[in-house]
Amino acid sequence: xxxRVMLLAYFAAVLLATSIHDLRFLGxxxxxxxxxxxxxLPRLLKRTAMAIxxxxxVVTISYTALSxxxxxxxxxxxLLINLRVFLLTALTxxxxxxxxxxxxxxxxxxxxxxxxxxxxxxxxxRRLFGEFRHAFRSRSIVRPGLRDxxxxxxxxxxxxxxxxxxxxGEIAQAMTSRGFFND
Amino acid sequence: xxxxxxxxxxxxxxxxxxxxxxxxxPGEKVVLLGVNGSGKSTLLKILNGLxxxxxxxxxxxxxxxxxxxMKGKDFSRSFRRESVLLFQSPEAMIFNPTVFDxxxxxxxxxxxxxxxxxxxxxxxxxxxxxxxQRPPFELSGGEKxxxxxxxxxxxxxxLLLLDEPTANLDPRSTGWLVDFLQELPVTTLVTTHNLSLxxxxxxxxxxxxxxxxLIYDGRLADLLGDREKLIExxxxxxxxxxxxxxxxxxxxxxxxK
Lengths: 183, 257
What we know:
The complex is a heterodimer of chains A (183) and B (257).
Chain A: H1 2-19, H2 23-37, H3 41-70, H4 75-98, H5 101-104, H6 109-139, H7 146-177
Helix pairs in contact in A: 1-4, 2-4, 3-4
Chain B: E1 2-11, E2 14-24, E3 29-33, H1 40-47, E4 55-60, E5 63-64, H2 67-71, H3 73-82, E6 83-86, H4 99-110, H5 115-126, H6 141-153, E7 159-163, H7 171-183, E8 187-192, H8 195-201, E9 204-208, E10 214-219, H9 220-224, H10 227-232, E11 237-243, E12 246-252
Parallel strand pairs in B: 3-8, 3-9, 6-7, 7-8
Antiparallel strand pairs in B: 1-2, 1-4, 4-5, 9-10, 11-12
């Protein structure tokens, strides 16, 4: 029950954070997340910052350059999008640390199956991703250049995309074979 | 060349290696046997300087390998050239647009001369010369494995670590790899859970138990005569056999052909 309440509260918070445009309310939301995180706050802030750094930097720099060129730069808008993404990401990490998805989705057997499948895929992909990282480090005699980093990133992304699609097909066939879609 | 002293490793709360000690001299061909989950891959990653032991220590050519040692540019550069690891999944190692680039990746980093000759030589050695201009992603599992092997051997390493190299190979490719490794003048440490392949891959055998400890270090022939040890390591199994109407049960291993 607790996990379902947490999930519903999370959905409500996401809805609020995406519909509110007042920086003070978003700031208050972030303060609430900080309070809920307690002693784990420094780790949560670091994780959140690392997760959004690249995406937000690209968006912020692109927007700033374009709006300055067009003469309609808004500092409020830059703050708003960064604060909102930070809040939503921190909120998601906070939820992921606290709740059990299997108990939260236990209301529906189908949802529970889906959660289990997703979780097993996440574990498999995470283990494989670790192998890719280690293999690249093992083969890098010197610090890899930009071209090598790009090639490795692209090959890794292509592999995981292909694997996700092919695994999804396999899983669907296995589920069909086991009668999952009979009803 | 390699000295392990009471080495142990944990992942979170799980112990994956405990109290492992052994040495490997230059030129030795060693097989590391153990069932899945016994810690073989973790041990290879430690010996390749990718992860570092939680307990104990290990030395490569007399130098202790720590995270700090691996941060030293000169040492890291020579270590990465001398000690190479073939991962169980070749896909993890492949990221270049052509097989030629894949094999040339290491030599290019080192700025080695006669790149073309080096790449072609090792492509011929492992039998992938006809694929040199093809993307490695399009090759079969066995062919990818050979490309990865060439990409490591082109560096002329002193220590070759191989993680279950026959796991994804068909019988013909397995036979080829066994012959190839036997003739390779490099110190090798090969992991496998296939007892019947052990004798083909090395002269000396190390066995990791399901309890993640080293329980045997010696000749494979002696290990095969030690039934208790084989059962302890879960390297043999027992099930019902039927021979011409007679049914019986005994410990055995399914032979690789």
